[in-house]
Write a structure and sequence with these properties.
The protein is an alpha/beta fold and 348 residues long. Helices cover 28% and strands 16% of the residues. It is built from 11 helices and 11 strands.
Length: 348
């Protein structure tokens, strides 16, 4: 199978042999509600013969997306509640999200902003809205970090990225700028020298956080794209969503974290799945996630340990929810579940 362009409809997926023709009517209904986009790089990774292919589960629409539970909502982590001006989310005192675009190179089936992104979602910021967003940041000296997200900011042209970088550089109290993206994985050819240069913000510490959920996404081309960013002096962090049937076993999750470390990307967050509409078939339980974190502790290098976090619904913030090894008063558990006295006998 060779795919030459981004696939943007259920019909295109059927023509590429990624979905069975008999599923087309149902998946057209899904695609009418939630945006579809799969780049050639991701399409080439999908094994159509494997009904449980982990790349397919992330990007191919599924009939289960039309089933919405009472707990699922279009704004599960409270972006809109904490948006003082269009394109800015100010949930924590010292940092804000800046969302200049709501367009992505691919549309993930589990996205917590799935009601906001894509052709039927929120529009990109207009010049006036972007001016207002920067004015908000400039007028709040407590803002130490700006996280440029979306959508995916790296779908913007280098010219537009450079404009964002220059405007952030002019705000003295902003010291750190972070770009959140999937582009180095899903469209590695887009990570050119010109793009990387545009990400640099004079006088600021710049980071790029890469979203990937399975080691197969870190292809040789993706690793080369990441190396282009890192070799330019921009550190990279990882973000992963815990997904049923994608990375919810120790070997797969540990293998992904090893792939990040091999690519010189620091494992950062493992996100528990948010209650976005139609995502229940991909969401694990918290207990399953905690057990998974226990399983990779001790089996995989300390470099390979992300922080397992939950974004509390309605915008109440992100908290770590990993396992606790202080089992009872005076005891600590080892990675294999053995209990040991602590402090040891005779300690002060």
């Amino acid at each position: 199978m060779t795919v030459a362009r981004t696939l943007r409809s259920a019909t295109a997926l059927a023509q590429a042999g990624l979905i069975a023709p008999e599923r087309l009517p149902a998946l057209e209904r899904v695609a009418a509600r939630y945006a579809v986009a799969i780049t050639p790089e991701m399409a080439e990774l999908i094994d159509p013969a494997n009904a449980d292919d982990p790349i397919a589960r992330q990007f191919l629409p599924h009939e289960a997306e039309l089933t919405q539970t009472a707990a699922e909502t279009g704004d599960p982590i409270g972006d809109l509640t904490h948006s003082p001006v269009e394109g800015v989310v100010h949930r924590y005192p010292d940092r804000v999200l800046l969302k200049p675009t709501h367009t992505c190179a691919v549309y993930c089936r589990f996205c917590f902003r799935r009601e906001m992104v894509g052709p039927e979602g929120l529009a990109n910021l207009s010049p006036a809205q972007l001016d207002a967003a920067f004015a908000y940041v400039a007028s709040h000296p407590e803002i130490w970090e700006v996280i440029v997200t979306g959508g995916d900011p790296l779908v913007l042209s280098p010219r537009r990225l450079r404009d964002i970088a220059e405007r952030l550089a002019a705000i003295d109290h902003v010291k750190v700028v972070r770009f959140h993206t999937r582009v180095p994985v899903v469209d590695p050819g887009a990570v050119t020298g010109e793009m990387v240069a545009a990400l640099k913000v004079p006088g600021k510490a710049v980071y790029v956080a890469l979203h990937a959920n399975h080691a197969r996404e870190l292809t040789p081309a993706a690793r080369t794209a990441c190396a282009r960013i890192i070799d330019a002096g921009i550190p990279m962090l990882s973000q992963t969503v815990l997904l049923r049937g994608v990375n919810d076993d120790p070997d797969t999750l540990g293998g992904l974290m090893r792939a990040f470390v091999e690519t010189r990307i620091r494992p950062y967050y493992l996100h528990h799945g948010d209650h976005a509409p139609g995502t229940g078939h991909l969401r694990t339980t918290v207990d399953e996630g905690r057990a998974l974190m226990r399983a990779i502790r001790g089996r995989f290098s300390g470099l390979c340990q992300p922080t397992y976090v939950l974004d509390i619904p309605d915008g109440h913030g992100k908290v770590p929810i990993g396992p606790d090894y202080l089992a009872t008063a005076g005891e600590v558990e080892d990675p294999n579940g053995g209990a040991h006295a602590y402090p040891p006998a005779g300690a002060n």
